[in-house]
Amino acid sequence: MLTTWRDHFASQFTHNPARTTDGVTVMSSAFVKEADGNQVVETLPERPVSTHPNLVTAQGLATIEAELERVHREHAQAQAENDRATLARTARDLRYWTSRRTTAQMIAPPEGGAQVQFGSTVSIERDDGRRQTFRIVGEDEADPARGTLSHAAPLARALFGKSVGDVVKAGQSDAEIVEIA
Question: Which of 21, 105, 138, 175 could cross-link 124 (Cys pair, CB 3.0–4.6 Å)?
Fold first, then answer.
């Protein structure tokens, strides 16, 4: 049977768990049940844990603890329902969040705004005139779209120790620090 590249490619990445390959229907093992009725659960890869120090703000620590509580509840429900796929996922997430909680180093908010440090809110002006403001926070609480930047991000690392008026590399261009709070 001759198939086009597009048909072959689409069959490899379909959301339909069953696909036909050389006339044989193949299903992902995530959708297969063993003869005894139990689900076959694929081994999930561990969530990567950063090699950077796990610095957190008070809000970041609260977020980690809330995630731990949420995953504990989800895990307990999966145990009650004998949902092996959810058990595997929540067990992995529990290992991740427990590790993040264990290694968390809460950093007090900075006092003064003479130099950029963890927890600082920094405004930069880029070469093209755009002004951006970021608060430097822990990795698990960072969300640049919401104005928070991980302390491990290249821009944050470039900003540390700098003062208003200093120029740093921001992506492919330079940016001047115009305010630190």
Answer: 175
| Cα gap 46→170, rounded to integer Å | 32
Question: Is the pTM above the cut of 0.85?
Answer: no
Assigned domain for 43 exists: no
pLDDT in tens, the chain (181 residues): 333 333 433 333 333 344 333 443 333 344 444 545 555 566 889 999 999 999 999 999 999 999 999 999 999 999 999 999 999 999 999 999 999 999 999 999 998 889 999 999 999 999 999 999 999 999 999 999 999 999 999 999 999 999 999 999 998 999 999 999 9
Distances (CA, A) of 50 to 115, 152, 160: 26, 9, 19
In a domain, residue 174? The reply is yes
AA identity, residue 28: S
Is residue 46, in this structure, part of any structural domain at all? no
